Amino acid sequence: MSDTQSDPGPDLSQGIVADSLTDGALLAGHVGDEAVLLARRGDEFFAVAAFCSHYHGPLAEGVLVGDTIRCPWHHACFDLKSGEAVSAPALAPIACWTTEQRDGKVFVRAPAAPRPAARAVSAAAAPRRIVIVGGGAAGFAAAEMLRRKGYDSDLTMLSDDAAPPVDRPNLSKDYLAGNAPEDWIPLREAQFYAERRIDLRLSTAVAGIDPRAREVTLADGKRVPYDRLLLATGAEPVRLPLPGMDLPHVFTLRTLADCRAIIARAGEERRAVVLGASFIGLEVAAALRARGLEVHVVAPEARPMERVLGPQLGDFIRRLHEEHGVIFHLQDTAAAIEPGRLRLASGGTIDAGLVVAGVGVRPRLALAESAGLAIDRGVSVDGRLQTSAPGIYAAGDIARWPDAHSGSAIRVEHWVVAQRQGQVAALNMLGAGERFDAVPFFWSQHYDVPINYVGHAESWDEIVVEGDIDARDCLLRYKLGGRVLAVASIYRDRASLLAEVEMERATV
Ligand SMILES: Cc1cc2nc3c(=O)[nH]c(=O)nc-3n(C[C@H](O)[C@H](O)[C@H](O)COP(=O)(O)OP(=O)(O)OC[C@H]3O[C@@H](n4cnc5c(N)ncnc54)[C@H](O)[C@@H]3O)c2cc1C
Ligand code: FES
Asked: For residue 83, how far is its CA from the centre of ligand 2 (angstroms)?
């Protein structure tokens, strides 16, 4: 078999009794060497590749929704008829196979010819020049979607990073731990941009936007005109106003260069301090433990991640990291960093030659502010992701949008949300007029424990725990006034997907 699967399942080319699959059923099998998934929707049968094109999630453990299948791991969504990755984080299609029903059986036949995605716009109606500021999750997903949907005029992507768009979530997980090959990190190779005529300009800072003249000004003074503009400038790590923050052994983590610098330093040190018990801080702690460093986490809160996940999961996460040798200094902060040593506010010191600050990020709003766009703790956008300036859209960590599910204007810092917003903004720059109504989703990984989170709950009055948190088999519902605002889960992927579908339906 070409895919790692202990049991390849039935040979689907030999036929399966049609009635053995109920409506919505999924069956993993194979055709020759290929792992194939057979799905039943009403009286129709679909056959597609059995693994997700993102990180190889087993689609047989996913959920059918209409004519799509959702991946259990990070909730990507594929069209069963065309294989198109209609919703991030997967961006590449999956293969489709033809099926035939005969004598009460369904047979999977041959691979189907790939189908190009439907064009979103006629060439005549398309804007002549689209400029994207930002080479991260939202910017890349927008550029990919524009070309996928047949936009073939000028497309320019400006990024002040020296690296092309990367799989940022991996920078605090497998890549930092030393368990991911280099080729996992770029979202696409250089050839991708060349073939699609995406003018990707790296190390190119945008200094200003003139919404009237419809042009952006680069730091070197050059001007780039646009008809539609997407702002996707992301966020930057908060730097604590602390003596010693600028010492060479103190790092923050946002870019590939940041990550490589931490890896280089980790190779020379025995002990590290992580400031902050945030998702990124604790993922960094886990990755540095995997590299064999002694790791201390210093954070002001009583429980890690309690503000987002509540006390039950907070306690579990603390125990999980302690089982892996992490030493917590909670309800404490750093008072000063010195070469080789960190002073705690409580009076103690920790000798460490590596300090990583993971104390939150702040959205990069300077361009939007100076262009006079409406700002409300983020760039304010409407339901179609357009800013207060016609023709200028915003997506990702900077965007505050009217979220239909919570009923509030929210801004989140999630990879999948940024990508999906980039995709919707791309369609809307082509005139689609689509609402951004995806339920927010994020995941985090600590050692072998993934945490999936669907929805958005800034506060709650009840947390209902189903299953057993310590057994790593649980789902927590965060409720306010009896309504479920968000769901966190560990190894309950189908239930997490079903909760997402339920939340979508509740707001349709
Ligand atoms: C280490 C790490 C791990 C993470 N893990 C997860 C995870 O597991 N799950 C999850 O849901 N989220 C995770 N996140 C958060 C996620 O990566 C972000 O929410 C996402 O990247 C936001 O996408 P974006 O496009 O808004 O911004 P970014 O991806 O940050 O991209 C912004 C881009 O804009 C460019 N830029 C900014 N200003 C300018 C300018 N003036 N001129 C030119 N270019 C400019 C930047 O160089 C960059 O290319 C993680 C983040 C980090 C840093
Ligand atoms: S592996 Fe399928 S969405 Fe990530």
From this structure: 14
* Element of type H or E holding 79: strand 77-79
Report DSSP state, residue 168. G
Contact between residue 62 and residue 69 where contact means Cβ atoms under 8 Å apart: yes
379-380/399-402 β-pairing: parallel
User: Cα angle at 384 between 451 and 79, to 5 degrees?
Assistant: 55
Does 317 have pLDDT greater than 70? yes
- What proportion of the chain, given as a percentage, has pLDDT over 70? 98
H or E, element range at 275: strand 271-275
pTM above 0.85, yes or no: yes
Nearest-atom number in ligand 1 for the CA of 159 is: 44
Measure 470 CA to ligand 1 centroid, in angstroms: 32
Asked whether the bond before 211 is cis by omega within 30 degrees of 0, the reply is no
Strands 77-79 and 68-70: antiparallel
pLDDT band for position 3 (cuts 50, 70, 90):
very low
For residues 138 and 392, what is the distance between their CA atoms, to the nearest angstrom? Answer: 14
CA separation for the pair 59, 73 (Å, rounded): 9
What digits encode the pLDDT tens for the residues 161-192? 999 999 999 999 999 999 999 999 999 999 99
Cβ < 6 A, ligand 1 pocket: 133-139, 158-161, 168-169, 171-172, 205-206, 232-235, 253-254, 280, 364, 367, 396-397, 413-416, 418, 442-444
Closest CA to 177 of 287, 46, 258: 287
Q: How confident is the model at residue 508 (pLDDT cuts 50, 70, 90)?
A: low
The residue count for the chain: 508
Rounded Cα distance between 19 and 183, Å, is 43
Q: Which ligand sits closest to the CA of 58?
A: 2
